[in-house]
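FIELD: query
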Amino acid sequence: MTSTLIYKADNEFEATNQAGNAVAIDMYPQADKKDQSPMDLLLSAVAACAAVDIVSMIKKKRRTFVDLKAETTGERAESHPKKFTKIHIKYIITSPDLTDKEAEKVIDLAVNNYCSVASSLDPDIELTHSVEIIR
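FIELD: result
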């Protein structure tokens, strides 16, 4: 895997992977943001990484999968490097026949066993998750 980062303007960059897929990144204050920051991308990445496996496992259980949304929040340290200390992912799954117990097990496996992004995080980060099922 490779990634190439290029400077676009002060506080603006673009990263391109080996397949040529590009993502814009900016470091502007929240009120002026046009793109995600590196820390935003990390939250998005951990939620998306597990989401792929969540959807796959729901379908393998022969449950009806309609939709998935993830709301991810992160708490950061006050001092530099201001790393994440806590990350919480709330998965909202629309499925008329998925049970709460099945959803919790699938999410736990996806986040804690299969997600390479979550496994790459500092083990001191408190990573938690929850689920809401819309039937």
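FIELD: remark
The helical segments are 38-60, 100-114, 116-120.
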